[in-house]
Amino acid sequence: MALGWMLGWMLWRPKPPKVETYAPEKRQSDGSLVLERKPMSDAKPAQQVPKGARVERVVQVQVQPRNATPTAGPATPGPGPGSALSELPPVTVDLSLVRMPDQSRRVIASSPDGAIVGGVDIPVEAARQARALKWAAGYEFARSNWGKSHSIVVQRDLGPLRLGGRVGRVLLTAPIGGASTGTESAISVMARF
Fold it and tell me: Are 167 and 151 in contact (CB under 8 A)?
């Protein structure tokens, strides 16, 4: 029975969150870049954070524009009229992922190199929460000078309370000899903290 309880606990207990560690950047075959992951507990976002929101991730991306387009000004020297401008410098985009007071996530974008004119934040997967374990069941053995008892115990967490009940068999031994058996039941109400 004890082995079964231990196995059940190992299979269904809440899992602690995994700690994220450093990971290098990785260029993928489609040209995308898996960004370097560099945990920093004191990182500050580049943007103003909405009231009540908690910063979960701070991201910075450098983007190199592919082509420069001609402007209304004079064309640069080169082959033919209206040649492309020289290569533009990389553009930095700062992003912050924040958790709002209602537990939803939002992305905040800014750039020191220009104005953010649009964008979209697309939640793909609903947030997963660890399954709360509210029920407990088990076996209780008690021994005293007057005898012993074997009981089945069931408990349930309900808000700030833990409710419980037990039913068991009692063997009482009298000091002058002899023994008697019977059943025992109990209920309990406890405050969780």
Answer: yes
For residue 148, which of 187, 182, 188 has the smallest C-alpha distance? 182
Burial label, 155 (beta-carbon count in 10 A; 0-12, 13-18, 19+): middle
| 143 and 159 Cβ atoms separated by less than 8 Å | no
**All residues at 6 or more sequence positions from 144 whose CB lies less than 8 Å from its CB, including other chains:** none
Q: CA of 86: how far to CAs of 35, 91, 113, in Å?
A: 28, 15, 17
Containing H/E element for 134? none
Please write the tens of the pLDDT for every residue from 156-179: 999 899 999 999 999 988 777 788
d(CA 170, CA 147): 7
Tokens coding 66:
């592919």
* Full-model pTM: 0.52
pLDDT tens, position by position, 40-73: 888 899 999 999 999 999 999 999 888 755 554 4
Gyration radius from the chain CA atoms: 33
